[in-house]
Amino acid sequence: MPKIVETVPNFSEGRDQEKIKRIIASFINHPDIKVVNVEPDQDYNRTVVTLLGESEKMIDALVDFVGVAINEIDLNHHEGQHPRMGAVDVIPFIPISEVSMKDCIADAEKLGSVLNKKYDIPVFLYAEAARNEERVSLPNIRKGEFEGMKTKITMPEWHPDFGEPRMHPTFGAVAVGARPFLIAYNIDLVTKDEEIPKAIAKAIRKSNGGFQYIQAGPAYLDQRGHVQVTMNILDYKKNPIYRIFETVKMEAKRYHVEVSGAEIIGMIPKDALVRSLQYYYDVMKIDTEPKELDLDGIVKAAEYHLQLRDFSTLKIIESHLGNDL
Amino acid sequence: MPKIVETVPNFSEGRDQEKIKRIIASFINHPDIKVVNVEPDQDYNRTVVTLLGESEKMIDALVDFVGVAINEIDLNHHEGQHPRMGAVDVIPFIPISEVSMKDCIADAEKLGSVLNKKYDIPVFLYAEAARNEERVSLPNIRKGEFEGMKTKITMPEWHPDFGEPRMHPTFGAVAVGARPFLIAYNIDLVTKDEEIPKAIAKAIRKSNGGFQYIQAGPAYLDQRGHVQVTMNILDYKKNPIYRIFETVKMEAKRYHVEVSGAEIIGMIPKDALVRSLQYYYDVMKIDTEPKELDLDGIVKAAEYHLQLRDFSTLKIIESHLGNDL
Question: Would you tell me how many other CB atoms lie within 10 Å of the CB of residue B23?
Fold first, then answer.
């Protein structure tokens, strides 16, 4: 398996489609980097890009990408609902395959150093790459945003990790960091009563004593007309999907509410599906092994056993990594 | 409801039945303190006493009890398998009813101060009552035991919290503290394969990413000829028994192993049973409320729904608290 990282750069333009295209076009010169998803948001006036590739090549591609964004975006003329401090606001590195968190921290440091040297923009290291407690939380760093940070950055405790203590006049500042892969996972409940997913979320989430790697809450889906338990799984090896799914079904029983399905938002590693399918194969004494299935087979099995809806091979990370896996 | 604490003093005599009787007899003068359980262990040469009562009266009773133990036990002539540093080795305060952890810490401090003043014995505050990180763990304080602590206690970092930095010549030293109520709970699996409860324990315990208030491991019951998942529930409100029981049953399915029953070791609050029975009443749409049941009714319901074996009203704390509850 090749060494693969995911990065999810967020940049501060979500309305001007031509500008967005020109910024994304910077990746055309980097054919080994897969642009998996580009998601502009008009209200936020912000675009989230999902990239996959090898560390070295990823850093080169991101340096070019930031170079284009500097020329395209002037934060003095930017407004939107999402907090931001930079034209490129944040770039997290996420270990995917044969890469450790330590590698991703090293990548974040390397990219931060190069961005500062090449473009004279201040860089903050955040999340797992943070150099002190205050900088673990991105919102904590970003507080004050582009406008307020012109003063904030001059305070000794808010000097950037790379660069002089002043904002770039049009770009602002960027946060570069490393964090674990998250699975965004939602379970559908056939009711409109939000109290039920709220109670179930409390039963399973870490903050109320539940599973260590689960963040969860209730959500109401207006268009579909039912509620969900919506969650992030921060470590699918320790808190596998099947265990969360079965626990939610068990809790739902006391409310006599049907669990009609579930969905993955964004991407999921093949390994996360294989591990959870193995549970159902064990229970049902199915003789083959889910890890032997191809991606189409995994999708079918996940639709059946984990009741995933709106699912396809495109949501499995490995489908974007080519045949050399 | 009256303000009730539990204390569990451990003293260093487990063989001489007459001596044990004389020490326990100190509680005869304190009729408001319930002696719930007295459990001598010959190998340990140590006796564990479980008491229930109001804080003020509990402190008076414990002061008398320590006074008798000082006269009865000389640690210079004590040997046994359990580590110990004092004739009375440890006294934890545990909140039971209408009492907070803060109250129990205050009780521990008060008892410690009185014991030192009255008998000139050094007192260490431990667990929630500890005044620094090093003293949270009782084994950490007790390391060196009666013999080694004669030197250890003279070191500035191991001066006692109450008293001069020297051991009492025959009594030694005592640890007084506060800790939450634990439910010791074991689930029976019909197999001799210890790998199965080991894997299930990992799925549910905090240390491997499971429920926050569960400590769990595997055990083999020689006489009964099957294994168990053995655990402590540190907070039954956040990690209720039914949720653990149902999760263990769900995990056991993949091994095709029957869950034949479960047991409570020591005591359990009525509230812990009522909360878990409510789940099954909800699922089965039973119209009455478990909190309306008397203790006999709760025992019957717990035997049925939670599959508790060897259970009786005597294991429910409230059965020892009299009719004034």
Answer: 25
pLDDT digits (tens, 9 = 90+) for B20-76: 999 999 999 999 999 988 989 888 899 999 999 999 999 999 999 999 999 999 999
For residue A176, the surrounding DSSP H or E stretch is: strand A174-178
pLDDT tier at A325, thresholds 50, 70, 90: very low
Question: What pLDDT is attached to residue B125?
Answer: 98
CATH number, span A4-178:
3.30.990.10
pLDDT at A322 over 80: no
pLDDT at B316 over 70: yes
Query: What is the spatial distance between Cα B21 and Cα B42, in angstroms, rounded to a whole number?
Result: 15
Considering only CB atoms, which chain B residues are within 8 Å of A253? Answer: 282-283
A30 — phi, psi (to 5°)?
A: -130, 70
B122-156 residue pLDDT tens: 999 999 999 999 999 998 999 999 999 999 999 99
Q: How far is B199 from chain A (nearest CA, A)?
A: 12
Answer whether B283 sits within 8 Å of A206, measured CB to CB. no
- Enter the pTM of the model: 0.79
Domain boundaries, chain A: 4-178, 183-320
Q: What mean pLDDT, rounded, does chain A reach?
A: 95
Q: Residues near A165 by Cβ (< 8 Å), separated by ≥ 6?
A: A122, A153, A154, A158, A159
Q: How much is the ipTM here?
A: 0.78
Contact B279/A254, CB-based, under 8 Å?
yes
CA angle A247, A253, A256 (to 5 degrees): 150
Residue B300 has pLDDT above 70, yes or no: yes
Subunit contact A210:B208, Cβ cutoff 8 A: no
The set of residues, in sequence order, having a beta carbon less than 8 Å from that of A294 and lying 6+ positions away, is none
Q: Which residues of B are catalytic?
A: 82
CB pairs under 8 A between A and B: 56
Please tell me the CATH code under which domain B183-320 is placed.
3.30.70.670
Whether A82 is a known active-site residue: answer yes
Q: Are B108 and B177 in contact (CB under 8 A)?
A: yes
B4 and B94 Cβ atoms separated by less than 8 Å: no
At residue B324, does pLDDT exceed 60?
Answer: no
Helix crossing, B270-283 with B241-253: angle to 10°?
Answer: 60
The predicted-structure confidence for A60-75, as pLDDT tens digits, reads as follows: 999 999 999 999 999 9
Per-residue burial over A91-128, b if 16 or more Cβ lie within 10 Å, else e, is bbbbbbbebebebbbebbbebbebbbeebebbbbbbbb
User: With 80 as the cut, is the pLDDT of residue B323 above it?
Assistant: no
The C-alpha of B283 sits at a distance from chain A's nearest C-alpha, in angstroms, of 4
* Helices and strands (H and E) in chain B: how many: 9, 11
List residues in chain B touching A: CB distance below 8 A: 203, 206, 208-213, 235, 238-239, 243, 246-247, 250-251, 253-256, 279, 282-283, 285
Give the torsion sign (CA, A161, A162, A168, A173): negative
Residue count of chain A, please give it.
325
Q: Is A100 helix (H, G, I), strand (E, B) or coil?
A: coil
- Phi/psi at A82 (5° precision): -90, 135
**pLDDT score of A324:** 42
Question: Scanning the structure block, which residue is given the tokens 């007084």?
Answer: B176
The closest of B244, B240, B243, B259 to B196, measured between CA atoms, is B259
